[in-house]
Design brief:
Elements: H1 17-50, H2 55-66, H3 69-99
Amino acid sequence: MTRKGHNGPPRGIDVTAAQLAGFVERAERVIEERAALAADLAEIYAEARGEGYDVPTIKRVVQRRKKAEADVVEADELLRVYEDAILRAGSLAHVHARDC
């Protein structure tokens, strides 16, 4: 931990200015590249939206394509189970409300 006004690195830490500058510059470069890629992706989605496609659905397709097929099938099955449970609970709630 450094104290205010202390100009050097904490004891026991060897800092090489050139190496540190290299890490910082590489990180800055990657951040710039990431921002450029994000802008490119936004353009793609804007173009798709302009053609009438549903962008949230496209994003979901992209996410699903990254996963193994078995994981996608399992997630779909679980989604159906949850939706069915909610629908049944909603139906039961209506029956319960009517009986009261």
